[in-house]
Every structure is written in C-alpha cells, then in structure tokens.
C-alpha cells in the first residue's frame, strides 16, 4: 500500500507541471480582414457597428480577435485587388467585405479563406455564389436584393406622385458591380414609367452627400 501511495504521488508531481503549462496557454487570437471599397471615414459607422456586434457575441478586438482594416479609399477595383492580396499574405482567418466589388476582389485572391459579405445587391448575378439556397465555394453572408427592390421603389414613387417626370438618383463615385446591376434594372424601368433619371455622383461622406443633395435641389428633381 505504501508503494502505491508513493507511486501515485510521483505521478501527480509529474503531471502537475503539464497541467500548469496547459492552463497558461494564451487564447488563440482570430485574425479578421476587413475589406472596404470606400473611405475609412465613410465606413467608420459600419466598422463601429461591426465591433459592437462582435463584442456582444464574445469576440473582442485586442482580446480574442484582431482586425486588419483595408480601405481602397474609392480608388477602384485595382486597389481592392492589391488590398485583398495583402490580407491573404497576412494569413487572416476570415475576410469581411462590405459590397460586391470588394467581395469579387477577395474571391479572386483566395478560394481557401472564408469570405463574409455584409450587403451585396445580387451575389448570384455578380458571380460570387452559385445560388442563394446553395452558395457553394468560400463566400457567404447577406444580400440586400437591391436590383429588385430599387425598381419597386421607383414604381411606388410613380404611383404616389403620378405627375412625376424626373427623378434624381444618388450614385457613389467609382460605382461597382452592385451599382452596375442596379442600373441595368433601373434604367429600362424608368423608361417604361416615362421617367427621366438624373444621375448625381456623390462621395460616401457627409460633405459629399450634402453637395449631392444641393445638386438635386438645383436641378429641381425628386430624389430616389
């Protein structure tokens, strides 16, 4: 019996350091890439909302996640391609994209890293996923179905104001695949409704929007 007690004690002493080492192992920090086509200031509200919602789920920046922010500053697809490649080089665990153009850049950069889109107008038409029911590949997330909805909004506006002849449409400068898909649906709908579209370019920030609304006012158009 004494020998057994001694043997058990030795085993406990040998195992104790291993348990202590395991307990001291740091929590793995998940690395997230945030890819945005617009400006850092323009996406600040979205980024803050993203941080807050992740925190509610227990994912806290600086504790168990780190976020690599990449903004193309409205410089177009080529800049997004460079930034997407940089995120892949940094070996992030996940890439979050804000719209269609950044989603396409991320998809071209990697087929292995999961990509989550926050709001893409028509991911199927954009070639990001196979279908809404079975997206396949490494891209998932949310779709605003904006091509279908924007034409419906125009129809509702015409019903509400039957004598309406001209409508101002605010479009972020630089565009993107999401905008192209919307316009492909919207322009023929406007013709069918006998409406003239006044397309007004704008920057996605308070000053840019202020200028765009002033332009719309000067042109005396209703805004969509």
Helical content (DSSP H or I, runs of 4+): 40-55%
* Strand and helix order: HEHEHEHEEHEHEHE
Q: What structural category arises from helix and sheet content?
A: alpha/beta
Q: Biggest sheet: strands side by side, in what order?
A: 2-1-3-4-5
Return the average pLDDT rounded to an integer: 82
Give the low-confidence spans: 2-14, 18-22
Helical segment tally?
7
Number of strands: 8
Topology at a glance:
Elements: H1 2-24, E1 30-36, H2 44-56, E2 65-71, H3 77-89, E3 94-97, H4 100-109, E4 115-120, E5 139-143, H5 146-160, E6 166-172, H6 177-192, E7 196-202, H7 206-218, E8 222-223
Parallel strand pairs: 1-2, 1-3, 3-4, 4-5, 6-7, 6-8
Brief digest:
With 224 residues, this protein is α/β, with parallel strands linked by helices. Helices cover 46% and strands 20% of the residues.
Walk me through the structure.
The chain is of the alpha/beta class. It has helices at 2-24, 44-56, 77-89, 100-109, 146-160, 177-192, 206-218; strands spanning 30-36, 65-71, 94-97, 115-120, 139-143, 166-172, 196-202, 222-223. It has a five-stranded parallel sheet with strand order 2-1-3-4-5, covered by helices on one side. Strands 7-6-8 form a three-stranded parallel sheet, sandwiched between helices. Helix 6 (177-192) links the parallel strand 6 (166-172) and strand 7.
């Amino acid at each position: 019996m004494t020998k057994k007690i001694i043997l058990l004690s030795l085993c406990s002493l040998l195992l104790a350091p291993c348990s202590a080492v395991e307990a001291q192992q740091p929590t793995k920090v998940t690395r997230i890439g945030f890819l945005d086509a617009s400006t850092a200031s323009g996406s600040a509200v979205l980024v803050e909302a993203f941080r807050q919602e992740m925190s509610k789920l227990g994912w806290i920046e600086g504790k168990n996640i780190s976020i690599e922010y990449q903004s193309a500053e409205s410089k177009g697809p080529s800049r997004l391609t460079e930034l997407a490649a940089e995120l892949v080089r940094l070996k992030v665990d996940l890439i979050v994209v804000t719209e269609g153009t950044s989603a396409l850049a991320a998809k071209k950069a990697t087929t292995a890293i999961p990509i989550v889109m926050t709001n893409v107008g028509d991911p199927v038409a954009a070639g990001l996923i196979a279908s809404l029911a079975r997206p396949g590949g490494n891209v998932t997330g949310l779709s605003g179905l904006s091509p279908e909805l924007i034409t419906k909004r125009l129809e509702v506006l015409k019903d509400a104001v039957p004598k309406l002849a001209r409508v101002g449409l605010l479009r972020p400068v630089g565009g993107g695949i999401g905008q192209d898909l919307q316009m492909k649906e919207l322009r023929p709908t406007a013709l069918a409704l006998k409406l003239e579209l006044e397309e007004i370019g704008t920057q996605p920030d308070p000053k840019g929007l202020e200028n765009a609304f002033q332009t719309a006012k000067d042109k005396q158009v209703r805004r969509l």
